[in-house]
Structure formats: C-alpha cells, structure tokens
Amino acid sequence: MGGEAAEGGPMEQRAVVTAGTGGIGLETAMGLAARGFGVTVVGRDAERGAGAVERIAAVATGGEPQFMAADLASLEDVRALAARLAAEGPLKVLVNNVGAMFADRQRTVDGIEATFAVNHLSPYLLTESLLDQLKAGGPSRIVNVSTGAIRLAKRTFDAVEPPGGYYGFHWYGRAKLANLAYTLDLAERLRGSGVTVFAADPGGAATDMTNGTMRSPKIVSPALRLLWPLVRRAIERSTAGPAALAARSSIAAATDASLDGRTGLLIGPEATPVPASRASTDRRTVDGVLRLSRQLAPVGDDR
Are 286 and 133 in contact (CB under 8 A)? Predict the structure, then answer.
C-alpha cells in the first residue's frame, strides 16, 4: 500500500481511527502506527486524546500521530470532522471503530435514535464524505468494525427504530447489521476504484461497554431475560482478553498484504476472512439501509 507524492517523494501513509482514544480503537491505532502510518485518532475527550497520542507516538515508525475532537453522535460534528480530515489531503486507511450500546432509548442532538446514529449513520457519513481523499490515496482501505450481536438483530429497515420495545443489545446488533450491509454494498460500488472495503469482527474484549451496559438485563427482550445472566457470563468469558487481541481483525483488514486486490470481506477475530451474515446481503435489507442513510445523513449534493 505504498505511494508517491506529486513531487516524487514518498507519500505519507495517513490513517484515521474513530473512537481511537481507548480500548480496541487505541490498540488499532497503535498497530497502524507501528506499521508506519501517521495516525489521527478521533474522540470526544481532549485529555484522553492527549494520552492516546502519547502512547501511539511511543510505537510510531512513520508520521506523527494526532488527535481530532468530535462528537460522533452529532452529524454536524461528523461533517466538520470530515472537512478537517479532507483538508489534510489523501488518505490511506479509514477505520470506523466507533460503537455504542445504550441501556435506555436515547436521541441525539439531531433527534435520531442514538444507537442507529452512532453505530451506522456516523461511519456512513464520515466514509461517504472522505471518498475523494481515499481515492486520491489509493490503493487505500476502509474498515468498518462489526459485531456478532448482528445474529440477534431485527432485519427490517422501514424506519430507524424497529417495531416493539427498546432493547439495547438487539438494537445495537441491528445498527451494526445496517452498517455491515452498507459496507458490503460499498465494496461493490467501489470495486476497481483503488479503494477496498472490509468489515472487521473483533470478537470482543473487556471494554467499558461489556463491563457496563451489558450487565443490565433490560438490554435484551423478555424472552431472553431469564437466561441473560448465563449468556452475559459466557460473552464476558469469551471477551475477557485484552483489547490488543481484539484489535487484530481491524489491523489485518487495514494492512494485511494477503488482502491486496480483495474487497467486501468480513475479517473475523482470528484475523482471517469469515462468512458474513446472510441478512447483510439481502437486497431488501441493503435497500432499506441505503434509503434511511441518504434520508437522515445526506452527503454533498444530496443535502
């Protein structure tokens, strides 16, 4: 994934990692920096951002890392972030690592249900807004972080919110299903453009989300509630490893030379391709997701 600047010198390998100031995102950023990328991490907290930059700089072998502040729950903030990133020129890697699960239904400043906004609309809007920079940096890669929670997700996308009550775990899986469907469709749209697109399933790690929100039985439907303590403990045992281990799939999707020329793959926890959910390629799912995305987070001339 090398390149040359217009004047003949080597092009800086620029990478962006959202939600990159801690956990899996920080480990992903450190892995990219160790491989020669100049990494920009995105987050809300400047203090955490400064700490992340310090840790990334300690392992960096390429350009200097930097932090950009943005609230990825705000579409206005995402657009402003995209403009700042675009102004820095060609981009080699974009890792949309952002993810959030909420115990109770919340709405963003845009009036959109927060689970769908953060887990899908934010990476959708940022990606679409940076396609020119990614094409200019080609060959380049887009990596969208997925989850196994997709398996328990409702698959209808006639509206942002599915029918029935709010259950954080199921709605999180549904938002990530929307993002996976978009990711695989985008891969086909960009085929031959020099930009390849991957999803990455980290398999989980002990993070603020697994240690906090998932302890509430309210996040699953009543049918699963009695069994939830057992299910949660099983998930926690499988995700108790360090974030560095969970970051392997994202780092591989962003850098593994064996993926050169390939696109539209889901990279699993073992850092190898795995089958994607059949729901993620269902045409009704894809069409519903794209319609909602364009309606709620218009890009460029669609605004």
Answer: no
For CA atoms 281, 110, 51, 205, the dihedral sign is negative
Active site annotation includes 182: no
Question: How many Cβ atoms from other residues are within 10 Å of residue 45's Cβ?
Answer: 13
* 20 token code pair: 């990159």
Measured in whole angstroms, the distance separating CA 145 from the mean position of its chain's CA atoms is 4
Q: Which helix (H) or strand (E) holds 17?
A: strand 14-18
- Of 12-26, 48-62, 66-80, 236-250, the least confident: 236-250
Listing DSSP states for 143-167 in one string gives EEE--GGGGG-----SSSSPSS---
Q: Is there a cis peptide before residue 229, judged by omega within 30 degrees of 0? A: no
Cβ distance 95 to 250 under 8 Å? Answer: yes
CB 141 within 8 A of CB 198: yes
Catalytic option among 124, 167, 172, 182: 172
Helix extents (H) in the chain = 23-34, 46-59, 75-86, 114-116, 122-129, 131-136, 168-189, 208-211, 222-225, 228-238, 243-246, 248-255, 283-296
At 155 the pLDDT is 85
Q: 47: burial class by Cβ within 10 Å (0-12, 13-18, 19+)?
A: exposed
Average pLDDT, the chain: 87
pLDDT at 118 over 50: yes
Report the distance separating Cα 217 and Cα 256, nearest Å.
39
Rounded Cα distance, 94 and 69, in Å: 16
Q: Pick the residue with more confidence: 164 or 228?
A: 164
pTM here is 0.88
**Cβ-contact 288, 157 below 8 angstroms:** yes
Kind of pairing between the strands at 140-145 and 273-274: unpaired
Average pLDDT over residues 68-78: 98
